[in-house]
Amino acid sequence: MAIQLFTPAFEVEECLEQIRECLEKGWTGLGYKTVQFEEEWKKYTGWEHAHYLNSATAGLNLAFDILKEENGWDQDAEVITTPLTFISSNHAILLAGLKAVFADIDDTLCLDPQSVESRITDKTKAVLFVGLGGNTGHYRGVAALCKKYGLKLVLDAAHMAGTRYKNGEVPGKEADVIVYSFQAVKNLPTADSGMICFKDPEYDRIVREKTWLGINKDTYARTNSSGTYKWRYDVEYVGNKYHGNSIIASIGLVQLKYLDRDNAYRRQLAEWYTQGFASYPDKIKLVEIDASCESSRHLFQIIVDNRDEMMLALNQQEIYPGVHYVDNTEYRMYRYADGTCPRARYVSDHVISLPMHMKVTYEDVQTIVKAVISFVTKEHTK
Ligand SMILES: *Cc1c(COP(=O)(O)O)cnc(C)c1O
Q1: pTM for the complete prediction?
Q2: In angstroms, rounded to a whole number, what is the distance separating the alpha carbons of residues 347 and 132?
Q3: DSSP sequence for 144-189
Q4: To bridge 161 with a disulfide, which of 35, 188, 225, 251 should be the other Cys (CB 3.0-4.6 Å)?
Q5: Is residue 88 lining ligand 1, measured as CB closer than 6 Å?
Q6: Which tens digit of pLDDT belongs to each residue from 62-86?
Q7: How far is the CA of 132 from the centre of ligand 1 (A)?
Q8: Secondary structure letter of residue 351 according to DSSP
Q9: Are 119 and 80 in contact (CB under 8 A)?
């Protein structure tokens, strides 16, 4: 049977039970389960604020929109970011009317602090760090730079649901805002949704209005206790409709209970892959994971000489890996930075993500390992 890169797995009966509660109660939208999920996420991560969204993309858009507006950044303001990410990370910078400045990655495939520092100018306002594959990379080094230079720090934690440091700490306490994704193939699968966690309580208040068109229902309710103006609300911001709903939050509430179990299995898969490739360090390069990081293992990536041919060879054996990611500076709106991040370009051309999900078995890993090794050793004798 074919082995896919990602296949979501749900606790179906439990999810249906939660969804049934919403349907019977007649409450499927904002509030109710969305609030419960926010509370559970705060308990799980330890963050003080969490607001449930219809996607992480919405969260990234909101993060830059609010930081720009509240800090009075102008059109020249620059955000230092990685070229090796899903496109929504960098689109969020452009959509907010800011300039994306690309820094290079290191062996963790996350931003290299040295490269970040070399890109800082007097226009730099923020850094966007992406924890690729659930890896913390040198996040703390980047956080230290942000502190030193007075820059805001945005953490795209789309892959990091359940990532911890080995001392139990959840990475991100230095960040001004953290955005998680609960899209179907992420570690905490729903259908589409996400969470935005601001450090500043005022930004958390603003984001709650901005995810519902900027509407503030409280102002008139507070001044008119008689209820005469119940229908009336103030509109404080130009916002979008970005909040999550109770049906999808129902799935999130259930899957959150199994996140640590699922991530432990992902780490087991990663261990099996790592053991399988141990004898081929020259042909199959693994991504460096910091010793202090207990990764969510959203991805298992290897770097090989002949990625495109390996992809075809694996596909012929019904193994369907992926690529995370194509260097974003290859896309037309970021091409002004083409060639500025040679390590990211190299990885973009040589990286391959092997199947990583709850339905991959030990036997599947052995099949994949064998196929990969057979390809790289044949290459060798050619
Ligand atoms: C998936 C992903 C996003 C976007 O998440 P959605 O919830 O699908 O909007 C953002 N950044 C990265 C790195 C991602 O992998």
Answers
A1: 0.97
A2: 13
A3: HHHHHHT-EEEEE-TT-TT-EETTSPPTTTT-SEEEEE--TTSSS-
A4: 188
A5: yes
A6: 999 999 999 999 989 999 999 999 9
A7: 11
A8: E
A9: yes
